[in-house]
Structure formats: structure tokens, C-alpha cells
Design brief:
Length: 123
């Protein structure tokens, strides 16, 4: 009976084939000097593959195959770089807010990407 009531398992989309665009997106909302919300994700084509938990700087794998390509040590090193970048970014933005005397909310958005080709090259 439980199998009838249980939703069917959702299958993860396969790794896309052909030339694709890899995009990294980050949105930050600065509510004030002590309240900031961030969202970051990676997309392969239109498929979300990774997200960043900004409270811990940990990378979450949104597809079962998304951890492939880097070793656990390389993922850990990348998380260290993200943590360092985020702390410097927030310090810089809070300094700009203080220097400008602005006390209203604002949003920053960043996008970075490249084309990945089946032969292993990128552009």
C-alpha cells in the first residue's frame, strides 16, 4: 500500500552533451551593515548543478554526478577560496556603505561563465 501512496522517485537529468555554457551566478542583498543575504549557483546549460550555502561556504551538489571532475581536496580548497572571497567582499561592501553614508538596501549581482566543448577545450 505504501508504494501506491509514495511519489515515484525523481531521476536526475543526465550530464548534458555537446558544447555547453557553464555559468556561475551570485546575488547579494545588503539590507544594512549587519544583515546580508546571498545566493550562489552554478548552471551547466540551464541545469542547476551546484549551490553555495553562504552561512558555511559549503558547496552543495544538486545533481548526483556534479561532484565529479574534482577531488574531495580540490572541492575543499575551492570552499576555502569562496569563504575568503565572501568575507573580503562583505567587508569591502560594508566599507563602501559606511564611506558613502548610505543606509538603504541594495543588491549586487555577478555572473561569470565560459563555453565548454566536448573535446575538453573551453572559451
Amino acid at each position: 500500500m505504501s508504494s501506491i501512496c509514495s511519489p515515484p522517485p525523481t531521476a536526475s537529468p543526465p550530464v548534458p552533451v555537446g558544447s555547453l555554457t557553464l555559468r556561475l551566478l551570485k546575488t547579494t542583498v545588503f539590507h544594512n551593515a549587519s544583515s546580508t543575504n546571498m545566493r550562489g549557483l552554478a548552471l551547466l546549460g540551464d541545469l542547476e548543478t551546484h549551490a553555495v550555502d553562504y552561512s558555511t561556504s559549503m558547496i552543495r551538489f544538486l545533481q548526483p554526478w556534479a561532484h565529479q571532475g574534482l577531488t574531495p581536496k580540490q572541492w575543499q580548497d575551492l570552499e576555502t577560496v569562496i569563504r575568503h572571497y565572501l568575507s573580503k567582499f562583505i567587508l569591502l561592501m560594508n566599507k563602501v556603505i559606511k564611506d558613502e553614508g548610505e543606509h538603504r538596501s541594495f543588491v549586487t549581482q555577478f555572473s561569470l561563465g565560459c563555453e565548454l566543448h566536448p573535446n575538453g577545450t573551453s572559451r
